Structures
1.
Amino acid sequence: MTATLLTPLMISLPIGVAALMAALGRRLPRRVLDVLATATAATVTALAVVLLVLTLTGSTRVIAWAGGWTPRQGVSIGIALVSDPISAGLAVLAAVLATAALVYSWRYFDAVDVYFHALVLVFLAAMCGFVLTGDLFDMFVWFELMSAVAYALTGYKIEEAQSVQGALNFGVTNSVGAFATLLGITLLYDRTGALNFAALGQNLAGHPPDPLVVASFVLLVTGFLTKAAVVPFHFWTADAEAVAPIPVCALFSGIMVELGIYAVARVYWTVYSDALPVSAIRGPMMVLGVVSAVVGAVMCLAQRHIKRLLAFSTVSHIGLFLVGIALLTPAGFAGTAVYVIGQAGVKAALFLLVGVIALRLGSISERELHGRGTGMRFTAALTVIGGIALAGLPPFATGLGKAITEEAGLAAGYPWLIAVFVGASALTGAAVLRMAARVFFGLGTPAAEDPTSRFDDDESETEVDGEEPTGRVPHTMLIPPAVLLAAALGVGLQPGLTAALGQVAAGFFDRATYAAQVLGLPTPPHAAATVEVSGFTAEGIGYGLLSVGLALLVAASAVFGARLPGWITTTARAALPPLRVLRGLHSGHVGDYVTWLVVGVVALAGAVGRILL
Amino acid sequence: MNLLPYLVAGWLFLVGLYGVVSSRNLIHTVVSLSVVQSSTYVLLLTVGFRSGGTAPVFADIPSGTVVVDPLVQALALTDVVVGATVSALLLGLAIQVHKRTGTLDPDDLRSLSG
């Protein structure tokens, strides 16, 4: 099999199997569906791993032109799938998480029917298409397929009022973002007459920025930032992940929102990197990232509904990823790549563990569950490990990625970013650890009635449709989270990872070589194409341990708040009114969410548009 | 270049957004979303328009004839398919919201707040 068959197969195989399952599935027994779907996802994983190895060892990209419409004399009218180590690596990540989610679903749902498996497979195919495509409109189509499937999966429990509301909020907000993206694509086509990333980049290169280029960039990234759950485009996230089935949440938080960040970086580096200078992009994107990191961490700590808690921790980490990308340096990009891998493993594992809690105890409210998980030793141990890994304990990949990105921030002249990284990862880790301390160990007093939330815990207790809480947790629900956590640790321990990433990041940033390889032109002579990326430094390990220490401290003071001296609780209470305002903004009202999206677009346009003055 | 179609596209986008933001009925929200989307149809077709161009069917026209850009028409068609899918899905969800809660007013659907 030639390499150019690999990428189309990664998309067509899961779609084909999904179509088959949707057509014949009702006649097949449940176990056959489980095995077929899992085997398909595992096959895609294997194909993606082969692709990753090929792109890492070979010096060129794997390029497949649909229908054999290859470019002639550097002009392309075909549609290409272009894979480099970043797109192949993200495809591996998506396929691994989809496999884990499908294995987990074997025993998680009793009443699941054929459409769940088919939807997960189409979702996987759309994610693969999204990361592998080399064409802007194609990217929009995969984006929309991914979105439509995601809405359906969010509202999968269609008999539950909250479930369909969450899906509707998700659908409307993301659709507005997607239409903005399409307008951006159209403006870009108007200017260049091209849709291929390489051709677009060639067309825009060498011209000073003008209003049309700025407008197209801002509109284009609006959809991606909405998908990425970047504040203020993020409001749909917590609603969707509070109601979506657990395996779906693991996919959303682990890979789908990260793909939004990927798209921003891909589009910038292949299309806009010559037209829009670093100075135009870095500031606005970093502000968005820092605001997301802070708002996400605060909202995360305030939650009592465990799935919403994890959803906001994703918002916070996405903010950190956006900061890493927005540094626009290879080191920042490399650090973010490791961080994304680590966060995917840890966050997906935590969601799956919450599903175990829900199945066993019939609730996902921290308040309700106080001390009720005392017998679940294995689940407890994994959750605590997950919380500490989320806070960035070296040598987990989360810790390594955080350390590299902090270092990159320092090198780019932003030493205060270290405080943002340490603070955000400490607070999100603390929220998980606090939840674990209360649920599994019954420590401290039960969480009080949440004074700043109108979110009704009690309405969303039946996480597992119609099932009674059971005594035994099946192995298929404990092995996937354990494997994912082990993988997050293993990636962090991988020797040679940082050296390889230096090269991968340099390749990702090299617009001219990308264009030459895609369009079949002679490759331009190389400047020093490899970048040194440090691994763990003493400072990196130190800040990692500091985050974990702070996380433990914050978790302990939340759990044992009643025993703290009076002046601390009085001071803490002063934070309640602003927190109440912040939580009030998360109103569950779709009109409010779209208003914030518009505010975000206008602010971003103003900030990026400064370059024109 | 005629500015009017660009203004129409911008107007449709904004007026559709106003509909989504101010809506008191989820069906109205979804239809407003379709209005937002129609701005993308208008813009796509505008971008591909060539003054004096004919339909890009090359079977019976001499080569060298000015034609409008066929690519954007294909894109618009894809866009219509996407829009139909999303609208159908969202309308289905809206019906289900009404079945479960008895209301379609987003102001009354606050159970996901905070």
Note: Chain B touches chain A at residues 9, 13, 17, 20-23, 26, 29-30, 33, 36-37, 39-40, 43-44, 47, 71-72, 75, 78-79, 82, 85-86, 89-90, 93-94, 96-97, 100-101, 106-107, 109-114 (CB under 8 Å).
2.
Amino acid sequence: MTRPILMGAVAYDPKVVPIWDGIREYLKAAGRGMDYVLFSNYESQVDALISGFIDIAWNTNLAYVRAYRRTNGRCRALAMRDTDVDYRSVILVRNDAGINSVADLRGKSLALGSRDSGHAAILPLYFLKRQDIDTQRDLKLLRFDLDVGKHGDTGASESAVLNAVASGQAEAGAVGDPFWAKALEERAVDSDKVRLLWTTPTYHHCNFTALDSLDEARFGPWVDALLRMDYNNPTQRRLLDMEGLKRWLPAQTEGYRTLFEAVEEQGIE
Amino acid sequence: MTGPITTKIKARYDGEDLGASEGLLVAVARLLDPLVEGEALELTSENPSVPDDLRIWCRRAGHRFAIATRENGKSTIVIERGRFVRTLADPVEWGVRMQRRGDTIDMRDWQVGRHADIQEEAARGGSLAPRGAPLERGAPGIEFSIRKRSDIWANAISELYEQATSSQWVGARDIPWLKLTPIDEQVERAVCQIMTFLAENEYAALYVPARFIGQIHPHFTEVALFLTTVMVDEARHIEVFTKRALANGGGLGIASAATQLSLASLLEPKDFSTASFLLSVLGEGTFLDLLAFLEEHAPEQATREICRRARQDEARHVRFGIAHARYAIEADVRAARRFGSAVEARAEFLKSVSGVGALIEESLIIYSGGGMSPSSLRAGTGRVAALYETMHANRVKRLAAAGFDTEQADHMSRLHTPNFM
């Protein structure tokens, strides 16, 4: 008998424990054994995936790109959240900064989240560059390198970005669109001071990553059970809400192309 | 995320220049709630940030941002309801309206809509919610041991509740304390002992319902709320009886072992009906006669008013006790035997107690006679003997009202504790 899937996740918040305990219980009831281990950072998790200590890693987009590059593509994405598709970064500006277009960002200060956050640092710079902004010369970058190793999961650096723009410490800033939507919904945005200027094209965020060597007979039923989680089931809804999705989707990988390019371009290991 | 306008627009809203975080999302979410998947809300806005903000919010909320057009500084946005409802609960009722009773809204008239549906047995997995409110799926099931209507209900419960809330009074203000002046020392000693005894009994009358309220399924909310008024009444009685003992130069009397033994036995029954029968039908019923006696022979106005007001409250508690006993017996005649056994068991338990106790009986004689002179004692002795007769006769009437025949009622009344309560 093969051992159950061992999954890795990063402990970016105390709720990670009830999320994966709950999903483990759900999978057990669905006849799919699973256990999980928690890492304090994505780098250790990717190491554990490559060394074979874990079978599947619940990865950020940056962790997926790193695993892919380090294995020369001998890994695969298995599934992702509905909210990992069509992710965008949002450029916020101060209303009084005189910024009415992306071009107006030239000569202004831009607050960024953690340097290892795909959505609050790496991809905003990548996409601004494609809007003819020389991110080194044209912008005064103000980085909030908080919770490095957690790839921006904690949201702490995005909060710092929003505060910096609202307080006038920076004229513009970059956050992920889920953070912005949540801030709007919680009425945490002072619209007299801060507004959305621009959103980047879409890209993909997290996924379950496995090495190519993981047998489909092992992960296939596990993924199928995951995809059957139901947002209309109150117990499962609680787990899905905590993890920030309404349903799991089979992985799509086209949306990672931009991050591969960004990592290359920005010299991120 | 744009697409052809094939959607059915079922709601419209003009957001003017309101920003997403300024409250616009409240309107959007609430207008989308009643739609079904695929139906749409059309929103107009003069706020330039709104289209982008809503597009981003739709992704989070699980709706489809179908289209946004802009003309003359005004955006038109169409949002299609996604497949998931925000709250997993049945739809709320609408159009429910209680009758008015004069210029009041009275609990007697609140059996309307789903709230009117009182079950004979409330479902397991209860909730701390008004009867009939749609319960969100995933809410924890809270277990209550009193789930059967016949274990708790009384007819006219809503009327009793309204009477209780409209008859509340204030112990500090509504007793003529200023008229309290020194009286004959022997009478004051009797008052202090009697007030202490009354307070002891009211502790039992407070703690018995307190033990059961938390077990009552909120489906039978009327009873839980009424018993809460009983507790407030008893708290006030304890307050004023204690104040009277402390307010006029005397002090608290003795809490006798016999009284405490008798009251302890009221805490014994594990089912509400039996506890309520012993406490409210027999105990508080007998207390009505005692309080009337104390009111009639009160040495001064403060004590008279205390007894009058306490008696009015107790009369409500007794009405509830009788109505519940009757309801329980009508639902299951075995309840009558259970009550009878409880009276027998209590009498057996208290067989070492031969009377109300010398301290109380002497105090009642001095109190009602007006002092310790021979003529006062003669008068008081006669009055207390008459009180016992009145108590017995009225107990029999109350037991008959609860559903016992005369013979059973007479037997039970004679077994009732000489401690009165």
Note: Chain B is about 50% helix and 5% strand.
